[in-house]
């Protein structure tokens, strides 16, 4: 029914709900668009084959009727909205924004040099004057460098999370080096002004996410929770200190672990200190990947995710 997801449906029957492509006897190469089930369709759990499938019951020797089909053309009215594999509303704002950048990456980007009537900040409909090489682009997202993303283990800065401020559209290109380009603000999320940098707007990506374990073992940590807080719950966005260089790609699934505590063994004085096992408490769905940093959506969680918690490939 409306509101279901492939993840939830698989989770009703399986220990790992992200395994739905496999239990539907499919793989990443076969699934070009995972948004393929609709409200009103019936999902059967085939206990003999051990997988979920769409369709009608088939004979298994237990009295279930066998349905024989002849070649024919059939047209079924289905609702317009397909059931997605994950809650898309939670990640859509993050598919092209925010941006993880290197320390000097925005240095040579086009920049706002003046505003209409000298305003400190500009909003929708206002003009902005820009200098820099536009490289043929006409629509730009505006950013300013944000907080550094530090590896919790090494304290190394892996990048900077550039804060998305809004969108500008070119009105008039300059005709000489001494003249700036003229832009108009078409969208404003936060205040933007002189000195803020611009990046050509990326086209809206086609979202075809198929959950899968990473190609190679991955172990990392939570670096930050989006929004500046230190804890996160279900359907919240976090960053981790692993990316494409570590074997992650879009759709990778990782498990969330809380480090086991160090405790005293009061029953054996000769072995007074012990470490409890790490406890798995949730699943993380990676939906945007940079070289050393990734954004993930917390899909299921039995505890709050915290900065420094472990992420690792599922068993």
Automatic annotation (TrEMBL):
One protein family per Pfam: LysM
Residue ranges of every copy of the LysM domain listed in the record: 2-43
InterPro entries membership: Bact_Kbp, LysM, LysM_dom_sf
Protein's name according to its UniProt entry: LysM domain-containing protein
